[in-house]
Structures are given as C-alpha cells and as structure tokens.
Write a structure and sequence with these properties.
It contains ten helices and eleven strands. The protein has 280 residues and is α/β, with parallel strands linked by helices. The structure holds NADP nicotinamide-adenine-dinucleotide phosphate.
C-alpha cells in the first residue's frame, strides 16, 4: 500500500505558490471572517493565517461575536468586495444558527469566492466552465494526479453528498471521465456500493464507517473526514489499519486531505489575485 502523502504535496505546492506570488506586482490578499467561538473553526482560521504568512500573502482576520446580526456580516462582506487589496474572502462555516449561510455566501463577489461555494462558481463547475473549485475536492484531485491515479474509465464511489465536499467531488471525478456514484445516508447496502469502487472517497464524519470488507482489493481510498476518537486523536471515516491491508493507495488522517485543502485555498487566492491584476 502506498500512502497518499497530502502533507508533503501541500508543502511543495505552497512553496511553488510562494515563489509565484513573490513575482506579482501586488501580493495576494485574503480576508478571513470568523463569527462566534467554535474551537475547530478557530483552529482552521489560525492555520489559514499561517499559510498566508508562509506564501507571502497579505491577510486580514475578522473576529465577530456569535450574536452579530447578519446585516453587520453582510455589510462587512460588501466592504471587502470593494477593497482593491483583498483578492479572496472566506467566511468560515458553520455560521451561528440565526444566520442564513446561503445569503452570506451569495454576498461574496464570485471573483473573490476562493472557497468556490458561490452559486456562480458551483454552477460553472456543474456545466464544466472555469471556476474557483471548492478546496477539499480540488485537493483530492491534485493528490490523485500526483500519484498518477487517473480516474478515466474507473468506477468512483463518493460517500457523502454535501455541497462543499461530496457533490463537487463527484463532479470533478466525472469531469475526468470516471463513472461516478454518490452515496449518502439513505443509500441501501453501502458496503456493496463501496466494494465496486476503484476509487473510494469517504466524506461523512463517522469513525470506522469504511471497513476492510467494503474495499475492493487494490482500490484507491481517500478519507476526507475529520473525526476524533475517544482519546481526542484526529481520525477519519476509514478503519485505517485494516483497509491498509487491501487498498493500493490510501490517505492518512491527519496528513492526507486536510493539508491539501489548505494548499488549494492558497492556490485559489493566488489565482484570484492574478485575475484581478489581469495576469491571466
Ligand atoms: P456533511 O455536510 O455533514 O455531510 C455528510 C454526508 O454524509 C451527508 O451527505 C450524509 O448523507 C452522509 N452520511 C451520513 N451518514 C451516513 C452513513 N451512515 N452512510 C452514508 N452516508 C452518510 O459533512 P461535510 O461538510 O461534507 O464533511 C464530511 C466530513 O469531511 C466531516 O468529517 C468533515 O469534518 C470533513 N471535512 C474535511 C475537510 C478536510 O479538509 N479534510 C474539509 C471539509 C470537511 P445525507 O445527505 O443523506 O444526510
């Protein structure tokens, strides 16, 4: 079994991004907005700031109280849309319950939507036009490419159908000529579906959901999930030691998809900066 080393690839990508950013007339700028005090979101926001520093980007962080009215958040986003020095705007999800996530996502200018969640970017992905790609599925595709795993003609099964991971993951695999099945909580006989996969992607958030008997011998298995075990250690959906005996390629958690997601955010921000400076 070969480990799909997302950490190593992400480091390489960020180094390339840093070099390219240094050659731009104006450095890329990313604004990250956090509403409330979700500890996991706080960790993500901090790591995004560090990634910006490492890539030589300008970054701004906005910490809003959980009870901030939606109108105030929309006003902040409008202001960031107008700023010449800000190329990417990321509002960390999930938002507090009183906010309408879709309304907030739609307020972000599609040209600055480096998360790729705006309906304009999601729609362009659907119809096969250029767009900002959601960071996690795009990171998985780069990881597959790095290890020369060509989806064309393969049977790909994606477990999970969220707008940010499962659905765009399926579309990206389809774009690359895989035959794609999306599974979800109402899928009957998930094990049988998974056993058919040459490429199996799990994005659910349930520890040990994917067991060795659900994996075809020699399959590529990508574990997107981030769960905690009883001792608080980060783990994915895949029963790693058992699946490692059957899979040909497997992502570790941590060190697989997570670092790739972060690297693609930097890549998208660089792309936004280049577009806004008419360099591509
Ligand atoms: P989500 O919105 O909660 O979606 C989970 C999906 O899993 C849903 O489509 C759900 O089906 C499906 N599901 C739930 N139980 C299932 C079961 N027993 N069998 C089959 N499908 C089942 O989650 P998400 O935002 O896509 O994230 C998924 C996981 O990836 C989480 O662990 C999250 O932390 C992780 N994640 C990691 C990264 C990274 O960078 N590594 C980035 C984003 C997310 P229904 O639609 O029928 O409810």
């Amino acid at each position: 079994m070969t480990l799909l080393d997302g950490k190593a690839l992400a480091t390489k990508l960020k180094e390339e991004i840093r070099r390219e950013a240094a050659g731009l007339p104006r450095r890329p700028g990313l604004a990250v907005v956090l509403v409330g005090e979700d500890p996991a979101s706080r960790v993500y926001v901090t790591s995004k700031r560090k990634d910006c520093e490492n890539c030589g980007f300008y970054s701004e962080e906005y910490d809003l109280l959980a009870q901030t009215p939606q109108s105030a958040l929309l006003e902040l986003v409008e202001g960031l849309n107008e700023r010449a020095d800000i190329d990417g705007i990321l509002v960390q999800l999930p938002l507090p319950g009183h906010m309408d996530e879709q309304a907030v996502i739609q307020a972000i200018s599609p040209e600055k939507d480096v998360d790729g969640f705006h309906p304009m970017n999601a729609g362009n992905l659907l119809i096969g036009r250029e767009s900002f790609l959601p960071c996690t599925p795009a990171g998985v595709m780069e990881l597959l490419d790095e290890y020369h795993i060509d989806p064309a003609g393969k049977r790909a099964v994606v477990v999970g159908r969220s707008n940010i991971v499962g659905k765009p993951m399926g579309l990206l695999l389809l774009r690359r000529d895989a035959t794609v099945t999306l599974c979800h909580s109402k899928t009957p006989d998930l094990p049988e579906m998974c056993r058919q996969a040459d490429i199996l992607i799990s994005a659910v958030g349930r520890r040990n959901l994917i067991t060795a008997d659900m994996v075809k011998e020699g399959a590529t298995v990508v574990d997107v999930a981030m769960n905690r075990d009883e001792s608080g250690k980060l783990c994915g959906d895949v029963d790693f030691p058992a699946v490692a005996e059957r899979a040909a390629f497997l992502t570790p958690v941590p060190g697989g998809v997570g670092p790739m997601t972060r690297a693609i955010l930097m890549k998208n921000t660089l792309l936004a900066a280049k577009k806004r400076q008419n360099l591509c």
